[in-house]
Amino acid sequence: MMHEMSDSRDDMMETEINNHAIVVTNDVAHNNKDRQKIFGADNADPSDAGICGSLMTGLSWFLVGITLPFSLFVCFKVVQEYERAVIFRLGRLVSGGAKGPGIFFILPCMDSYVCVDLRTRTYDVPPQEVLTKDSVTVSVDAVVYYRVSNATISVANVANAHHSTKLLAQTTLRNVMGTRPLHEILSEREAISNTMQ
User: Fold this and answer.
1) CA angle 63, 44, 87 (to 5 degrees)
2) Where is it localised (predicted)?
3) Is 124 contained in some domain?
4) Domain count, the chain
5) What 3-state DSSP class applies to 82?
6) Is 113 exposed, middle or buried, given 0-12, 13-18 or 19+ CB atoms closer than 10 A?
7) Chosen domain end from 70, 86, 117
């Protein structure tokens, strides 16, 4: 999966490792202005939703107006300081990026949203059986610290960002440990950390 992402050149995945921390961020090449930063956000303007989308938007606003005192409980949502809400209107990203922290407005029956937690998460990599360069089998485990840096990209471009990060950490650990002999694994932890960086 990592090879497919690098071959398509739509996304560049940068992994930063500081001693015992892995932070994964998804960025797009900034030198090509024709490429869109987020899939599906190329025409996220509500004005070009089409006739059906305009009718549904008008109907939704009409229902909000009729049930005004009660609709306020449904239309206003709150996200915490450490969260961001990615809003989809009729399946398309709403322009302006992720909303929050604080109060934001959604239209009932048209908008759906996904709350993304921006706090640092930890993940214990289960013990991996690795065959070292000098053909010795060792069991290696690790702890991964990561956080989401862009909520919109983590929702729109990756099906499950947290699971993908876990698999990337396991694969990176196995690949790096498989290229080292046993005495380097035991004695050169800082060099291994710099190699993974």
Assistant:
1) 60
2) Membrane
3) yes
4) 2
5) coil
6) buried
7) 117
Q: Which of 22-36, 37-51, 99-113 has the highest mean pLDDT?
A: 99-113
d(CA 190, CA 197): 11
Q: How confident is the model at residue 45 (pLDDT cuts 50, 70, 90)?
A: low
The residues that bridge with 24 in the sheet, in sequence order, are 15
Strand, coil or helix: what is 47?
Answer: helix
Q: Which residue range(s) make up the domain with 172?
A: 119-196
The answer to whether position 123 is within a domain reads: yes
Q: Is the pLDDT confidence value at 69 over 60? A: yes
Asked if residue 42 belongs to a domain, the reply is no
Tell me: do 112 and 64 sit in the same domain.
Answer: yes
Section 36-65 average pLDDT: 70
If you search the block for the tokens 């000098």, which residue do you land on?
134
Domain stop point among 81, 100, 117:
117
Model pLDDT for residues 2-30, shown as the tens digit of each residue: 333 333 333 333 333 333 333 333 333 33
Local structure of 109: helix, strand or coil: coil
